[in-house]
């Protein structure tokens, strides 16, 4: 029995958990960085992940349907247009409505939550333009 218990203990402790200072080692801040509670939290509701990925799932479904109806060229062309629209952006201190992306997705005629409560004059991201540009260009 002692032999069986030793094999169970040997199997239960992996070598990655054991380090030079032992099993009760603290968090190594220099190697692993700061711990974040936000990264360890699980979604509070089962539908939360689905809602976060709704637009991505809808795009995949639309591309699959478009491919079945019109062929491979249609979703490829649309994906190329999406990439081109994502690359063109305003300066970091200016609010962007992403109207071109809404037109490509067909959301330009829909009124949603973000259309009413996303007023750029009440935005908290407005900052010093020169500092924000220097940060984006990597000069700061």
TrEMBL record:
GO biological process: proteasome assembly
UniProt keyword annotation of Magnesium present: no
Chaperone is among the record's keywords: yes
InterPro entries: Ump1 (IPR008012)
One of the Pfam families matching this protein, by short name: UMP1
GO cellular component, one term: nucleus
Origin superkingdom: Eukaryota
Coiled-coil spans in chain: none
Keywords, ordered alphabetically: Chaperone
Membership in a protein family: Belongs to the POMP/UMP1 family.
Name of this protein: POMP protein
Naturally occurring in which organism (per UniProt): Cettia cetti
């Amino acid at each position: 029995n002692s032999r069986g218990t030793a094999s169970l203990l040997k199997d239960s402790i992996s070598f990655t958990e054991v380090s030079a200072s032992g099993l009760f080692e603290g968090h190594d801040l220099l190697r692993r960085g700061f711990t974040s509670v936000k990264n360890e939290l699980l979604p509070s509701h089962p539908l939360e992940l689905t809602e976060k990925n709704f637009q991505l799932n809808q795009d995949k479904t639309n591309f699959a349907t478009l491919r079945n109806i019109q062929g491979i060229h249609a979703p490829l062309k649309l994906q190329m247009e999406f990439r081109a629209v994502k690359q063109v952006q305003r300066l970091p201190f200016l609010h962007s409505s992403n109207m071109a992306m809404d037109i490509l997705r067909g959301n330009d005629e829909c009124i949603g939550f973000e259309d009413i409560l996303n007023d750029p004059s009440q935005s908290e991201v407005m900052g010093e333009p020169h500092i924000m540009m220097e940060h984006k260009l990597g000069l700061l």
